[in-house]
Amino acid sequence: MERIDSLQNPKIKQAVKLRNSARYRREIGLFFSEGLRLVLDAVQWGIFPQTVFLTEQFIWEHPDAVTALECDETRAFTVSEPVMEKLCDTVSPQGVAALFKMPQAEFPQNPKGLYIGLENTQDPSNLGAIARSAEAFGAAGLLVSAKGCDPFAPKALRAGMGALLRLPMIKAEDFIGAIDRFKDCGATVFASVVTKDALPIYRAKPSACSLLLIGNEAGGLSADAIKKSDHKVTIPMIGRAESLNAAAASAVLVYELQKGAEQR
Question: CB-based contacts of 91: which residues, under 8 Å, 6+ apart?
């Protein structure tokens, strides 16, 4: 493996730019990931790194992981500890970082199960947490509006614990148009809102294919998205709080809809 000791190496500069810039990630179709679990999760799901950076200590401590990362398409570099610290934005880097090609799921021809539609989610940590609970409760995939935060941001990937790479994810430039495509496939669309006229989520009856719409943290769903829904649903509040944050609300909504699907 070629060794990199310079903090000014062009490959290191590119990796740091990918870590920091959503626009740059979109331009070249690559994303940055760090840490043993996240990097290996990607590989286990068939997403092999284009470039991988390893410290000598990591190579010595994790020989099986190094073997798993070996691929004809992957170029590996050993880097010094200072270089790894520059690459990573975590306090204690684990000694491995990589650049991956962005996966992009095609719109399913015959969607089944529960999909989560995220309209303009702003916080990457929320997006990752939503993906994690969606995967845990058996969601079929994600529909993510392109105007929201980048699902391949490092904070989103860490919060998702690999779920954003494992769940099929459709990025939609036209979010309302994507809802129409789901409806054309027979999906029942649920809009999550905080209004008294909405159906309590535990009474919702999902169909063979359902799309749950969740709005952004500040403004909720757009009026256009709500109009496209078949049912408005809400989480009844027993205590004093008027609402939950997007990640917590999503976990409750997905769990209740999946429970309803099992009872069909």
Answer: none
